[in-house]
User: What shape does this take?
Amino acid sequence: MSDRSRCLFLDRDGVINWDFGYVGTVERFKFSEGIFDFLRKAEEKGFLLAIVSNQSGVKKGHFTMDDYCALEKHIIGEFKANKINIALMENCFEIDDNHPDRKPNPGMILRAAKKLGVDLTRSIMIGDKVSDIRAGLNARVGLNLWFLPDSPFIDKNYADTPDVLKEIASMKEKASQVKVVKSFDEALIYLT
Ligand SMILES: [Mg+2]
Assistant: This one.
């Protein structure tokens, strides 16, 4: 067995916090219920925590880089206050879908894994969109948790829209690498 670290890679909007669409200011940022408890337990199970987030909102004009930096400072402060150690935050500010860092491309995960020295095959990705799951698969992350809670931390529930159902069906052949989870408690079962 590898003695290198394991990492829980986390998508941000829709997992860490409510996704109201292009969340880029402290005012519009709201942590998901149960996220601190979930991350504390993940750390107890020996996972490093890394956030890998597409943040195209600056280049698309939804918020400024100053807004983003203030928000990042707020997020780090809240995690510290709740005794959670985020080992790394990687953001992709690009809007070009071909950019190697922009999910579903694996650039951020691969870079984070290198920086942290983690074993990707023993690591886990969790995200609420198919692009998160595909990024995890593209980076050869061992297990990819598709976070689709019944009461999602987003502004609308798209978990059972035809496109998402089709994507889930298309993942069947990857069943050992992709699991749909409906809550943080259910996700914890996989963090063994
Ligand atoms: Mg998301």
